[in-house]
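Re: your question about Bacteriophage protein

S., sorry for the slow reply, the queue was backed up all week. Below is exactly what I fed in.
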Amino acid sequence: MASYIDAANGLADAIAALLAPDTNGVIALTGAVAKIYVGWPDKQTLDADLKTGTAHISVWPLPGERMVSVTKADMDWVETGAALASRETQRRARAMQIGIWCNTFGARDLIGDAIEGWLADMFRLALSDGTTALVSWTGGQLIDDKQLLNLYRRDAMVMVTYSTLQTMAATPIEQTQVAMDAQVNGATIGSITLTTP
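Result:
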């Protein structure tokens, strides 16, 4: 079952794949190292990293979540594996803030433009439980009031809509037998048994 943490992790993983696909944390656009994670930056770690040119990209689930309607058809059981069935029980929407924290406005804008361009083209996000979340852009902002501390920040705001599932063990039907009698005027003239694999 997906939660807003799964949705936030999926978003952080997708950003990491976009910016630093070689998994060593180096952003191809800037050549700088970036830490990409779910949560709010720790001030001491952020300050130390900014001095070395390491950027932070944080995915922060904002407070509040709303339910999105689910129809009866969405709640039908679907076989999802050899011995599993699942159904959608809820659909939730959660606002998320993608914070880009850099020591120069140039690095911040390069990274921000790449993320915002990708978000404009991305609609679906694969989650770890096999479901797909919907992502929609809701806005952004620049926060440059900490320039004297060499901190340049840009936020991208998105709404992530994801499903919660109920799963259960399903017993597969391996063989079905049907027995039929043929009758004429009430008298049985023969029997047959049909077996399906």
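The mean pLDDT is 82. The first helix runs from residue 4 to 19.

Happy to talk it through on Thursday.
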